[in-house]
Amino acid sequence: MMTKKAAGLLALLLSAPLCQTALAQMSTEAPPVVPGARPVTLESIKIHASSVEGNLEGNAVEREVLVFLPPSYAKEQQRRYPVVYALHGYSIGARQWSSEIHAPQTIEGAFARGAKETIVVLPDSKTLHNGSMYSGSITTGDFESFIARDVVSYIDAHYRTLPERRSRGLAGHSMGGYGATRIGMKHPEVFGSLYIMSPCCLSPRSVGNMSPEITQMLEELKSPADAAKLPFFARAQLAAAAAWSPNPKNPPLFLDLPTRGGEVQADVLARWAANAPLAFVHQYIGNLRRYDAIAIDVGDQDGLRTDTGRLRDVLDAYGIENTFEVYAGDHTNKLGDRFQNHVLPFFGASLCFSAGCR
After folding, report:
1. What is the Cα–Cα distance from 196 to 305, expressed in whole angstroms?
2. Residue 94 pLDDT more than 80?
3. Structural domain containing residue 166
4. 262 and 340 inside one domain
5. Residues in CB range of 270: below 8 A, 6 or more apart
6. pTM of this prediction?
7. Which element (helix H / strand E) includes 169?
């Protein structure tokens, strides 16, 4: 959990190559319990992530996934459901993410308030350095494909889903918002609606004002065990490097840092920039046009507000329909309210709830 002191330090690092992955999850407010809400069923399962096999970090191939089945699922055994896939942020996994959105309370509350029932899936993409960036890397494993292929195919095979793109929604917050943006742009053949919450890492970044002390710590690392002892922001830097500048010939961490001997490595920063959605979004406009609905939100006190607005501006410039909301809140405090009263109702209105939608 991110302390308020650490949150304050974040302002000093917004131009650093962490791409704001340093936005860890803080305590969140739960919305009021909705009277009469019926219980959902939680299943904790393991999915074999073939996309992650052979990764150099040794990240688990058997991944935990939380599946929330709607109140009617057990009784209406001929009924099939759309699925909402919701991606967690940096430094947490699926279980912590479920606590931050106050599931199952908010899922039950959304349905009780009139949102159409869906299956809700929370995959775990935490890695050695606390975050996969939902990217593909020999060092971390291919977590982009884990979400878009492994998880989706497993859920369709084992639950009564509507196995069509227009019946699948993708959402995510912070690093998960980055993941929803990245995966959404690249995989419109899998998903039909997107909800992007306070996405991190949208812009290419320079090394910025990363302290010489942290830079030296990173360059002197001797083992993954040593990396685990690093300060929070330094570990986030490693997560970004493992995802975006992997190097199978550079043990023991198998990554290239954006500095060497204190000098900026332009080639590494170029690789990071190639993974910045605001740099590559223009290549995927045709894909984004395929979505039935796209929503973006961010808090008015969130350091990510400017870049989130820039993403909306790109969509507007190309005439891609979307909804955009700046709400009263910071990076995390309103997550429960957003998930219950905005995210799930959005998918209830935008997903296809009958067979034959393509």
Report:
1. 12
2. yes
3. 33-203+280-350
4. no
5. none
6. 0.92
7. strand 168-173
